[in-house]
Amino acid sequence: MDELLGRQMPHSIEAEQAVLGSMIIDSRCIGDVVGVVKAADFYSSTNRAIFETIFSMFTYSMVTDPVTVLEQMRVSGVWNENSAAYLLELVNITPTSANVMEYAAIVRDMALLRSIADAGGDVMNMALEGTGGAMSILEAAEKKIYALRQGRSAAGLEPISKILIDVYDQLSQAAKSGSSFPGLATGLHDLDRKIMGLNKSDLILIASRPGMGKTSIALNIALHVAKTSGKTVAVFSLEMSREQLALRLLSSASHIDGKKLQTGRLTTDEWTKLGQTASMLSGYDLLINDNPSLSVADMNAQCRRLNNLGLVVIDYLQLMQSAGSGMAYASENRTQVVSDISRMMKIMAKELNIPVICLSQLSRANESRQNKRPMLSDLRESGAIEQDADIVLGLYREDYYNKEVEQQNIAECIILKNRRGETDIIELEWQPEFTSYVSVDRYHTE
């Protein structure tokens, strides 16, 4: 249709030819090129077939030159009577491979422009056809643009050869970091070793009865990630206000009693420490939204606009509104609503490619048991929650139920589900005056 109207989609045949010519005359640049462009970025089907052939040869460590590439094209079935002449032309019109990355950048940019045009056309068609409400069309449009910004298509099949290269890069980065686990550190060492840190696309559920400190441990983790990773951390609080969260963060980071902090009756030294802590916290990229009527779609839309996002924390699941419109289902079972929300959160974690921590209330089922430690079946309105979550952590403090217990302020972080390893129980120390969780000090006693 574009050709009939005298228009063509953005492309540069010269840049595509220069990229291919460079790859043929200098195989050392192939590794750099395949990290920047992919076969679908080539506008010409002939150029795309040649790139796929060279990429396949590179994957299998085969020698690449005009003769071997031509022979591989025969094997792959993409050869025709003009292939030999065209490969010779590619070599002749490429003076040097020194500028191959500039050529590759042009090919990538042209492909991005075509993708933007395609996305714009799809959105226009949806709007004109009225497929769904305005909010659902807006959500679809944002997803398409975000997928382009992240450098990937919204959907599609990927060859295992490409996936293995991505996995190899991840393993290489993990090896270079020198860390004993691949994900972001929570600051709770024993927990990190069991769950391998907070990993991309993971949905981590922290569940407990009220008063166990779900919000506190989530804030501790959020603060540690913001401090150590340099990435943006987004906290969505549907229960507590921004000011309440900030007070908790100040108390935890400054080690000033939270109750005393709220009165403002501090000593000169404490005011000094508070000022230093506030200055330190201000330097972290920690964002807080306390709108109590947010849906997963709202959160996802806000997170897509953040360039360096590392972690999302949601407090808490049962307070969340259902899909797009932000209005709860009037006629549907609440269990189904919560199941839909948990599924959308897992999709959000995958789409944003970051870990998402969501807090959840437990039902009263454990109150009637002799052993009151949380179980997966205690998840309120569980539905598909335990299926969608990659990791489920349950918090339990014996002294919450038995004030006479010998060990006070010792908590159990029970790993109820762990797709990255085994289930276990991690001991943590609860600091009530600072509303904070820390790792148990095994080397010193009071």
Q: Tell me which CATH architecture of the largest domain applies here.
A: 3-Layer(aba) Sandwich
Number of structurally distinct domains: 2
Radius of gyration: 27 Å
CATH superfamily of the largest domain, please?
P-loop containing nucleotide triphosphate hydrolases
Give me the CATH fold name of the largest domain.
Answer: Rossmann fold
Order of helices and strands: HHHHHHHHHEHEHHHEHEHEHEHEEE
The total beta strand count reads 9
Low-confidence stretches: 324-331
CATH class (first level) name of the largest domain:
Alpha Beta
Number of distinct helices: 17
How far is the N terminus from the C terminus?
79 Å
Q: How large is the share of residues in beta strands?
A: 5-15%
Query: How does the overall form come out from the CA principal axes?
Result: elongated
- Summed over residues and divided by their number, the pLDDT gives a mean of 81
Biggest sheet strand order reads 3-2-4-5-1-6-7-8-9
Helical coverage, percent range: 40-55%
Give your account of this protein's structure.
By secondary structure, the chain is of the alpha/beta class. The chain is built from 17 helices and nine strands. Helix 3 crosses helix 4, helix 6 runs antiparallel to helix 7 and helix 11 crosses helix 13. The termini are far apart. The relative contact order is 0.10. About 2% of the residues have low confidence.
